[in-house]
Amino acid sequence: MIMKKELRKAIIAGNWKMNKTPGETGALIKEIIPLAMNADCTVVVCVPFTSIAVAAESVKSSPVKVGAQNVHFEASGAFTGEISAAMLKEAGAEYVIIGHSERRQYFGETDETVNKRTKAALEAGLTPIVCVGELLWEREADITDEVVSRQIKLDFAGISAADASKIVVAYEPVWAIGTGKTATSEQAQEACKLIRDRLAALYGRKTADSVTIQYGGSMNAGNAAELVAKEDVDGGLIGGASLKAADFGEIIKAASK
Ligand code: PGA
Fold this sequence. Notes:
- The chain has 257 residues and is α/β, with parallel strands linked by helices.
- The chain has helices at residues 22-36, 52-58, 85-91, 101-106, 111-123, 136-140, 144-155, 161-164, 185-203, 205-210, 224-228, 245-255; strands at 11-15, 42-46, 65-68, 95-98, 127-132, 168-171, 213-216, 235-238.
- An eight-stranded parallel beta barrel has the order 1-2-3-4-5-6-7-8, surrounded by five helices.
- Strand 3 (65-68), helix 3 and strand 4 form a beta-alpha-beta unit.
- The longest helix is centred in the last third of the chain and has 19 residues, at 185-203.
- Residues 15, 172, 177-178, 216-219, 237-241 line the site of 2-phosphoglycolic acid (PGA).
């Protein structure tokens, strides 16, 4: 029997957050490229806006893809400090992280704006990596299911099945981000399966089975293999460990099995 997991290509995406100047970007990418050369997964580096152009130049003639970490939902206009999807695309990004918990916590991101940003990204031909996940108190109160289901419902509102299948979802329990506290592989599987079931309820099983669902939150060289081996975990969104080429390389290897 072919497992559904084998129909989906895992995506290992580095979320560099607010790290690396344009000058430092080329050097790290140069170290990452050989590690991605024979990978059986898609490798993406989501870099700061100011590093996108140099990253796009650096990954040329390699399998590594470039992503951004946010996008505004309007096409242009009086939105000081914001960046549009077309700007990202032209600068060389193919992916964009949307609704990361740091955006939700520190910058007032809501499911409504996540939904609008996702639509803008899709329209420009970018692949959105939509982040969902519960806070610590929400897990402790045993409402993870409700929280994540609500995020999926709102973040995907008004998005067609054809577009939904182009979206990558990253399940990132907020308590596991940058804390060194990883969800167990069972917890990760349970939440990723829940997300797939919610997508199946919205779009049907076939579409849900085609969606890449990543785990994120303190994924590292030591725990990646167990996490990405789970049936509904299709790779990872990696913060801290994506800034060290050797560690990122180990995670790429783990996802290529
Ligand atoms: P972390 O970050 O791997 O450093 O926990 C993950 C993320 O925020 O995407």
